[in-house]
Amino acid sequence: MGFAELRERMVRELVERGAIVSAAVEAAFRAVPRHRFAPGVPAAEVYGAPEAIFTKRAEGGRAVSSISASWLHARMLEAAELAPGMRALEIGSGGCNAALLAEMVGPDGSVTSVDIDPEITGRARRLLDETGYARVQVRTGDGAQPLAETPAEGWDRIVVTTGAADLPDAWFGQLAPQGRLIVPLRFRGLSRTLAFAWEGEHLRSDTTVISGFLAMQGQSAHAPRSVRLAGPEVRLVVDEGQPTDDRALRGAFATHPNERWTGVELTGSEGLLPPLNVWLAGAVSPYGRLRASSAAAERGLVGWVPSIGAGAVWNDDSLAYLALRRAPGEGEH
């Protein structure tokens, strides 16, 4: 199957699943040769991969740059609500998303892409030039810091393509009064891509997408830490410097659990858990994510928790987390 056919199939599938809903985003996806931004990767994988394609790894194999999954690119662009003539800032360069932004703002708009890694910006510059997007400006620097090229009125759109642990002051100062900020935000162990717009003097989110991104580097870098509760199989992921007594929590986890089931039954179609997790992360402190291997659950070390982890709260020497179980059958108690 040729490049055009692969791209058409990708677009058709994104429309069918609701990731693409607008004609503008659909046109951008049809125009950008996605495979050109992942040289060396089979085109069928570039257009069909359900998750990100990694384009650079650090020593030890840790991924530091990638092309986001096509469905996530689409959802972020839909949330950005771009229009011709807008001035867009991308934080986290790869080339492909900048090309999509350039298609949407058109020749009368502008796109500036910033990344802290000169190797990544050099690669992005080369690939954008080779694919006909020389009008995209590429800069090397810390995207969490003020950018000299910021328009006097601010950026109409700021699209962040790297995981952030906070909203730096520079983004508030650089966003136009009618602007929108799209950012993958990690807070208390959760990762969500949020779309913000001004409401008075503060930003309010009106769109949430479940997603994960490679962590931001530079002054805003902030890595979570893990408290091992039962070796590597069960751990508590703690973000934002929340206090823990690791030894006391391990002792608490080793005691006999006290189970209280809510009686709420899920079929899998309600979409209840994602908004519940967001609410808990914002309403309860401290809050983190308990992660466990399937083997740990099978051996009874923990209740069943999703692969993305379960919401957890704790104090000095006790721990509670949300677990799932198969609904009791008829006649069972």
TrEMBL record:
* Assigned EC number: 2.1.1.77
- Tell me the compartments it is located in: Cytoplasm
* CDD domains for the chain: AdoMet_MTases
Write down the superkingdom of origin. Bacteria
GO biological process terms on file: methylation
Stored Pfam families: PCMT
Q: What are the entry keywords?
A: Cytoplasm, Methyltransferase, S-adenosyl-L-methionine, Transferase
The molecular function GO annotations come to:
methyltransferase activity
Similarity field? Belongs to the methyltransferase superfamily. L-isoaspartyl/D-aspartyl protein methyltransferase family.
What is the name attached to this protein's record?
Protein-L-isoaspartate O-methyltransferase
Source species, please?
Streptomyces boetiae
